[in-house]
């Protein structure tokens, strides 16, 4: 039985959290496929737009056969949005897209599967540009009407999808893993901190710079924390620029590191006093798990990843954020409790477990 995986997110200049999810699943699938104790029962191939790079396709690094559209990204995406340029499939083969932007099949001889991480464009539409809201709404409506199967990553997202009209029988919950960070590169991490001018302890935030991540209130909360505490502590924000990214600017104690390699992110986490992650809405929140596995206490808004193992604050209240930062640094007992809880939770959430859950789902759907 064959499943074609649409991994178009990995063609994007900034793959983001969906890219991390997709890459981690592929890396774990490759390990499971050669594990003699696991009978995958599934032949996996990858599909994406035509590579714009010369030489071997970068997707070949995962060890799976790669098929491509004749079109490069973003032309392939435009065609898929119009129901054009689908891959050729044999009857019974599955097509699983790791985002809502995958090709749209017209034939009933094949089942489509889409991974939908959240319904943010519905829950917090003001944090999306008008064009982005329209695209998400159109893609979701196609998935809902087509009877495609949907994978999601948290109970909260599952409930939201049911409320928006997805048949519960067409939904499968597969949580993400936590063990995707590279080994920390201490030298590169020290070099980055020196370049940024970070000479003191620091709290860390990891997210794309866009309105939904609530960075303006995060910085205001940090300012109020600093106003009440004499000890020099900086804020380091890691992540690429998104849309409307002008909400915050660097200052002597607020540093914008931009996008960093996984090994440097791991290094920053080993040095951070705490992670502060306060998005207005999130389908899960991988940075929380990354902090959990790195033994870093977390201050977070009430999102799925933070349940039970983070100090919850009100993301709309800078004073609440300030108080959370203070406690995460100075409340020794709380720090210990958060780190212990986070480590235990992260140890139960592995990408291999997620990969095996995908294999089991594909086999189940193929047998229908």
Would you kindly provide a written description of the structure presented here, covering whatever features stand out?
It is built from 12 helices and 13 strands. The chain is 39% helix and 17% strand. The radius of gyration is 21 Å and the shape is globular. The mean pLDDT is 94. The protein has 368 residues and is of the alpha/beta class. It folds into 2 domains: 193 residues, Rossmann fold (3-Layer(aba) Sandwich); 163 residues, Glycogen Phosphorylase B (Rossmann fold). The two termini are 12 Å apart.
- The CATH superfamily of the largest domain bears the name Glycogen Phosphorylase B
CATH architecture field of the largest domain? 3-Layer(aba) Sandwich
Strand order of the largest sheet: 3-2-1-4-5-6-7
Separation of the first and last Cα atoms: 12 Å
List the SSEs and their pairings:
Layout: E1 2-6, H1 16-33, E2 43-50, E3 66-72, H2 75-81, E4 94-97, E5 111-115, H3 120-123, H4 130-146, E6 149-152, H5 155-163, E7 171-173, H6 186-196, E8 201-206, H7 215-228, E9 233-238, E10 254-258, H8 262-271, E11 275-277, H9 286-293, E12 298-300, E13 311-312, H10 318-330, H11 332-348, H12 351-366
Parallel strand pairs: 1-2, 1-4, 2-3, 4-5, 5-6, 6-7, 8-9, 9-10, 11-12, 12-13
Helix pairs in contact: 1-12, 6-8, 7-10, 9-11
Short description:
With 368 residues, the chain is an alpha/beta fold.
Q: What keyword list fits this structure?
A:
single chain, 368 residues, alpha/beta, Rossmann fold, seven-stranded parallel sheet, three-stranded parallel sheet, globular
